[in-house]
Amino acid sequence: MKALLELSNVGMKFDTPKGQFEALKDVNLKIDSGEFVSLIGHSGCGKSTVLNIVAGLLQATDGGVILDKHEVTEPGPERAVVFQNHSLLPWLTAFENVELAVKQVFRKTKSKAEIRDWVEHNLELVHMAHAMHKKPDEISGGMKQRVGIARALAMQPQVLLMDEPFGALDALTRAHLQDSLMEIHAQLGTTVIMITHDVDEAVLLSDRIVMMTNGPSATIGEILEVTVPRPRDRLALADDPTFVRCRQRVLQFLYEKQRKVEPLPRRNSAKAEANRKRA
Amino acid sequence: MVTLTFPTWMEPYRALVTGKMTGEQWQTLLRQLIWPVLGMAVFLLLWQLAAQRIDTSLGQFPGPADVWEQAGTLVDEHQATRAKEEAFHERQEKYIASRLEQQPEWEPVYRDYTGAPTFFDQIGTSLITVMSGFLLASVIAIPLGIFIGLSNTAHAAMNPLIQLFKPVSPLAWLPLVTMVVSAVYVSDDPLVAKSFLTSMFTVTLCCLWPTLMNTAVGVTSVSQDLTNVSKVLRLNALSHVGKIVLPSALPMMFTGLRLSLGIAWMVLIAAEMLAQNPGLGKFVWDEFQNGSSQSLGRIMVAVIVIGLIGFLLDRLMLMLQRALVWDKSSVQR
Ligand SMILES: Nc1ncnc2c1ncn2[C@@H]1O[C@H](COP(=O)(O)OP(=O)(O)OP(=O)(O)O)[C@@H](O)[C@H]1O
Ligand SMILES: [Mg+2]
Questions:
Q1: 20 to 30 Å CA-CA from A158: which of A4, A38, B1, B238?
Q2: Cα B69 to Cα B49: distance, rounded to the nearest angstrom
């Protein structure tokens, strides 16, 4: 089977005042239709850069991205993005935010009534039907993120790109949204690339976990297939041997093979130590 | 049973009447009523004391009571003038009617009443002028600000000019504007007076800048995230401006508009004084030249009215801002 999305030899060099900075080098990745892929790696390694290149918001300086036989040259709704901090237009209600996207994509193919139904349908999908006429500052962080996801889904993208979509949320809300996302993925079979810092989240949601090496010149270090069968249940998984092994592999990669080498400033080192213990 | 509901701001007063004040309500009462009234009283007292000690060539400086009296006089004068005007029109109507009876083919000539404008007429003139100047400035500054904010080239090209002209005082513009209006606006049957145009353009030139700069800054500071949303949605340039840029810039734009209106009002009074153009500024100048024993009192009335109108104009903008701007936190007092 031919891959839906293909990154070949993607490299990214930024021009900085101190000269060129090579953030990414030789990133090669093939993603099949319907696959759920997470990108994981230490902060600053270049995950967002990869995602933005796929989104078309950044242009790779080397190599390129091909989606469904077409090279990616600019952003577009077929590669919908869910941003880390929701990025809803604060002056529009949840409904209007989604509607803006739907109108833009389906203006020519859907009637007014169909557009309205489609907006409502997508808000129901993320369980936001009850608050769809509220403005972003009248709803919680988790709800905003749901609306952001609804907006992206409503574009019927070929690939859904998510940059730490649940990063700013508390653990409970995050678990809720992860469940919603699994449900939606199972229902729609959307292809998803998601950036995360959370190992459990990566293992729970993904078909494959792409682990990135530390920058500069970051690239893909390892790719792990998560063979845990779907549907997955977070409670049952806690002591599922496959799940535990996958989790172990990712942790090993992050904290043994790709341990942050630069010495941490004194004040933070205690915190880092605690983090390592916790992990 | 009937239950009366009070608006929250009235709560302390109700409690005061029923004798059930909480500590917090005392605080509110102090802040909302007692301190402001006390401040005003102290001011009036100091004014009175100071006024008694200042002797000018036009007599003693007016205290609050004199000013109050002059305010009454100004109202009376206004009413008297209006009555005269009405009588004039009545007489004219009668005359025309009777003459038409005798000479049906005669073309009647209606004349306007030509009495001196009253204080209130001057207020009206000033308000119309300031609003026209401000609207013209907004109509120029908002689109230009958006353009400058969107295009780095435009910003680079215009920024030096803006920085150069922004600090120019209205008094420096006035002679130029007067000459240009006189030279360019020649018409036998002018729609509006030249003096009106001169005042208006001077106001426009001076109050352009805050709106222009704030709009430009508002436009440049559209969040990168929202710009990315716009790119992913492939909004065309027009929708991008209309749906993303303008709403984002609206709070800043309103901050600019409020500043502009404040400047417009200050500039107008100065321009009217200097150019002797009709309006409150001219009223002040005329009283000053007139130099009767009441002049200072009348000028003081004008000063207070100017302040009051400036305050009301600002409140008006604030209300508009509250109604139109989505970001309520950006609306300061
Ligand atoms: N526009 C830019 N100009 C210069 N350097 C950049 C630019 N964008 C990113 N970088 C650098 O590229 C590297 C990768 O950044 P990126 O934002 O992709 O990291 P990340 O993995 O998403 O980090 P995080 O997990 O903290 O979000 C960083 O070292 C960053 O400093
Ligand atoms: Mg990032």
A1: B238
A2: 18
